[in-house]
Design goal:
It is built from 8 helices and no strands. Helix 2 runs antiparallel to helix 3.
Amino acid sequence: MRKYLCRAASNRSEINPNSTRKARPPTAMEGQQGQENLATLALAQAHFQKGEYAEAEALYSAYVRQYACVASEGEAPGSKCSPEDLATAYNNRGQIKCFRVDFYEAMDGYTSAVEVQPSFEVPYYHRGLILYRLGYFDDALEDFKKVLDLNPGFQDAILSLKQTVLDKKEKQRRNY
């Protein structure tokens, strides 16, 4: 099983180098909030890597709530909240739900991940796998193609795309 981790952006310019917003130093409160967010995410990642999925899921959910709170207040340049981190939290929480065979909730997580970070190919791949398993071949094909648009060398997506095409043809042949 692959485990997808992310890096934390250290400042706003790493997230969006073309931003026209002027950077300001974070206040003590904002800096503390950012450190708490990173600590929550790091702890979630550690539990995820150890296979302690209940703990990881709770921490990913806490991170998502913390991020939403910071975002609603207006993200400060030094808050250390990044779309990459949020997308990873959604993706990994989706993985945990997939392990529990909560496919629709897992897909919600993957969809949230790509809404936050559209260039993150992994959630498209995971969502495509679930769509394939559920027999939604056209939707799975779209996700696998998107993965390959973003990362042409993603071997598992190449294989999954080929298998989905074959199974779709077989389904059509049998007139399901």
